[in-house]
Amino acid sequence: MKTVPLKAEYRSELGKQKVKKIRAAKQIPAVVYGSGSKAMAIQVATDDFFRVVHTKVGENVIIDLKVSGPKKMEKTVVIKEIQHDPITDAVEHIDFNIISLTEKIKVNVPLHVTGESIGVKEDGVLDVVHHEIEVECLPTDIPERIPVDITSLKIGDSVHIKELSFPSGVTPTLEENEVVVAVHAPRVEEEPVPAEGEAAEPEAQARVRHFVRKSQRPEHVGRFLGYRRAGRAGRESEVRQSGHDVLRTAAIDAHVQVSRHACFHRAVHMHATRGI
Q1: How far is CA 266 from the centre of its chain?
Q2: Which of 28, 156, 179, 249 shows a CA-CA span of 20 to 30 A to 195?
Q3: Please, which residues have CB within 8 angstroms of residue 171's CB and are 6 or more apart in sequence?
């Protein structure tokens, strides 16, 4: 892998307000760590940084960093971390790590899935467990991506780390039996099991459903609101007329105060407890 040059400036101004001014000037605040040296605060031009990371290897790019200003530095670095604004996703801060081209490092390499699984064609569900694979290698041996062909995968099949192909000198850090990609059977939705009270009172359920549906009609809306304004005392006197009226008034009162779903369950409960 070739290195990419990037220019930066030494940064002596620290603090939130200073950093805001730097970002306003289309610069990105950053810090350089590693190699036993003291961390150095720098800033890089936004356009220059995007040019560096918009390559085939993305954030795994090896950078020849040249810092100018009161304190100078020329080091080979990799991107350790990029902090983004949670709302705009703009790059807010970068951490660079100094490396040696002769020492192995650990990096995350994207997994590249190819082909169309037999299991997926049979309505199976593809599950990509690891979108990136951590590997250990020399900086110059970092691969662009790790390919995996899923064409032959049937429902219940999976691909493990040991079944992937890695370039010479590149070693995965995950266990060899770690699942990378799998094809699962399609989910089967279970029929809802009725509650104990609902199963014991089928007739009451049917009557409540009837009045709930009836309550949706426009000609009944005014009547329902009238029940609500009448107050609890007025309603209690009316519901004593008959068992049928008790059920209807209960459904109407519940419909005005809560949702249609809550209305159904409340009316069933009142029917069971009052012995209608």
Answers
A1: 37
A2: 249
A3: 135, 136, 137
Query: What's the pTM?
Result: 0.61
Reference 161, options 132, 189, 193; nearest CA is: 132
Selection from 241, 232, 264, 238 nearest residue 251 by Cα = 264
Q: What is the DSSP letter of 82?
A: E
In this structure, how many other beta carbons lie within 10 angstroms of the beta carbon of residue 215? 19
pLDDT per residue over 123-171, tens digit each?
Answer: 899 999 999 999 999 998 999 999 999 999 999 999 999 999 999 999 9
User: Domain 3-98 belongs to what topology?
Assistant: Ribosomal Protein L25; Chain P (2.40.240)
The DSSP call for residue 27 is E
- Can you tell me the distance from the alpha carbon of 237 to that of 244, in angstroms, rounded to the nearest whole number? 14
What class has domain 105-184? Answer: mainly beta
> Using one digit for the tens of pLDDT, what is the confidence trace for 177-208?
999 999 999 877 666 666 665 554 556 566 65
User: First and final CA of the chain: distance in angstroms?
Assistant: 82
Q: What residue spans define the domains of the chain?
A: 3-98, 105-184, 196-274
Q: Specify the residue for token string 């009836």.
A: 214
